[in-house]
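ok, trying the design again with the full structure, not the truncated one.
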């Protein structure tokens, strides 16, 4: 990539220098902006960060390995049968690579540069730094050691071979960035306003988002640096996190004719797999047996919000999306290598909730925060409420949030109460029992919303307890994938830095490699 980009930059310059004759003026696009527009780039950075490589990463790789989804086919089975590491490489595109199709890393770097000099832009700078932390925590959790301190400098400094930083150093800086950014907010100064798709420039809510992200990152360190984890978790809680439903971080989408305006999850699932009801699916996908069995066993009302089975009253009647509990059946992971005869009887995503183009994206929810607070309480780091109270609040919020998906997502208070009665917090259980209950609940509460976080939390805690598949010829020796694979292009164009980082991380770059905090 280094040499290619240099050619892209140098070839026009050489041509102009050797043969000007007015061509320089002719080659200027009168409609192109020569200045950074911070609001536009921040909007783009938000959208690209959350949507990049959803199908390959969140759906086929993580969704399958976390046993939310299953497929009978081999090609898309990155997470189902532990094949095809190429799907995981697409998330590296967040770095971008050329002036035409920049990634979110370059976008947010340009935003930060553009708003750093003017004191009146302090709020825009703070929000951009918080979003940068959100972006890079996802990247480093996927790949481990990555370019961080020198990332995004290809355009500004012509640095095409950024060094790879250790995940330990990255995490320390992300937490520092969050603290400094939150403390710098000034209610008297301007914001991104409507260019901010999540909070519309509301700095009080961005503070809660920042502290909530700090809480998530702090808790990620429990197995590698418990003292540091405790410090940052307590600091985040003291600052104020997202616990009220009105503070939920969401991005709205519409069911419009412009594809980019649609929810990328529903659009991705519809175009990639669940195109038409009945018969085969493009990628052979269904909801997984592990997920459906858990929801049925616990009598979880989210089952009827999440899943349907397509039925027909007669051979000539149209298909109907049936949410009846008795019909729901998950497909076993890695159980088939051809279309199973009973394929039509397995559950699929609900078209009246999950597959709606106008469905919102839930970026950060009170349900997750309440579960983090419950864990903090079990660790003795939080005593304002009890772990049981936080667990109950998480369940309630996690069920109520589905109402944002429309009438098909509404779960009544009576059903929530019945679920909590059926599945009370294990007050007298062991610490392991309580941890398992909290993190299994997170596996359900964050379904679809944030598969990335579910996977990271599973790698940290080991919950929920999942039985790996061992399909013939798999790439992991029958173990659930634990890291994404950095693209081969890095070996070619940034080899020195890539090999140094690979050596630090155990000498491998495979789906079985591990990140620093995964112990």
């Amino acid at each position: 990539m280094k040499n290619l980009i240099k050619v892209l930059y140098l070839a026009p310059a050489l041509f102009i220098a050797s043969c000007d004759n007015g061509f320089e003026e002719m080659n200027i696009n009168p409609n192109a902006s020569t200045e950074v527009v911070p609001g536009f780039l921040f909007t783009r950075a938000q959208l690209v960060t959350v949507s990049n490589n959803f199908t390959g990463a969140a759906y086929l790789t993580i969704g399958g390995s976390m046993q939310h989804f299953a497929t009978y086919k081999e090609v898309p089975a990155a997470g189902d049968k532990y094949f095809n590491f190429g799907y995981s490489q697409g998330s590296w595109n967040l770095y971008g690579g050329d002036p035409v199709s920049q990634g979110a890393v370059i976008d947010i770097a340009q935003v930060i540069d553009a708003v750093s000099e003017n004191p009146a832009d302090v709020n825009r700078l703070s929000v951009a730094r918080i979003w940068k932390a959100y972006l890079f925590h996802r990247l480093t959790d996927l790949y481990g050691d990555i370019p961080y301190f020198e990332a995004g400098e290809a355009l500004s400094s012509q640095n095409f071979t950024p060094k790879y930083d250790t995940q330990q150093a990255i995490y320390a800086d992300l937490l520092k960035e969050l603290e400094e950014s939150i403390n710098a907010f000034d209610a008297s100064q301007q914001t991104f306003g409507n260019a901010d798709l999540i909070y519309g420039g509301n700095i009080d809510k961005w503070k809660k988002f920042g502290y909530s992200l700090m809480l998530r990152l702090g808790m990620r360190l429990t197995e590698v640096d418990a003292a540091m984890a405790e410090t940052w978790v307590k600091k985040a809680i003291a600052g104020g996190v997202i616990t009220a439903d009105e503070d939920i971080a969401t991005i709205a989408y519409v069911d419009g004719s412009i594809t980019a305006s649609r929810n990328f999850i529903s659009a991705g699932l519809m175009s990639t797999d669940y195109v038409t009801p009945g018969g085969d699916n493009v990628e052979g996908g269904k909801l997984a047996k592990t997920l459906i069995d858990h929801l049925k066993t616990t009598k979880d009302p989210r089952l009827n919000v999440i899943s349907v089975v397509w039925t027909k009253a007669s051979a000539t009647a149209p298909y109907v999306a049936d949410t009846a509990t008795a019909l729901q059946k998950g497909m076993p992971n890695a159980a088939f290598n051809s279309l199973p005869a009973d394929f039509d009887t397995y559950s699929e995503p609900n078209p009246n909730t999950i597959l709606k183009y106008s469905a919102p994206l839930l970026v950060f929810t009170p349900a997750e925060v309440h579960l983090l607070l419950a864990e903090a309480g079990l660790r003795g780091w939080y005593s304002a409420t009890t772990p049981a109270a936080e667990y109950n609040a998480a369940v309630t919020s996690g069920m109520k949030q589905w109402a944002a998906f429309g009438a098909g997502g509404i779960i009544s208070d009576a059903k929530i109460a019945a679920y909590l009665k059926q599945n009370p917090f294990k007050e007298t259980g062991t610490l392991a029992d309580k941890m398992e209950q909290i993190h299994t609940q997170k596996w359900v509460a964050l379904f679809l919303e944030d598969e990335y976080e579910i996977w990271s939390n599973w790698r940290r805690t080991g919950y929920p307890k999942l039985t790996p598949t061992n399909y013939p010829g798999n790439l992991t020796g029958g173990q659930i994938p634990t890291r994404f694979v950095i693209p081969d292009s890095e070996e070619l164009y940034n080899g020195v830095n890539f090999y140094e980082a690979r050596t630090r991380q155990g000498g491998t770059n495979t789906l079985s490699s591990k990140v620093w905090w995964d112990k």
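Keeping the full-length input from now on. DSSP finds 20 helices and nine strands in the chain.
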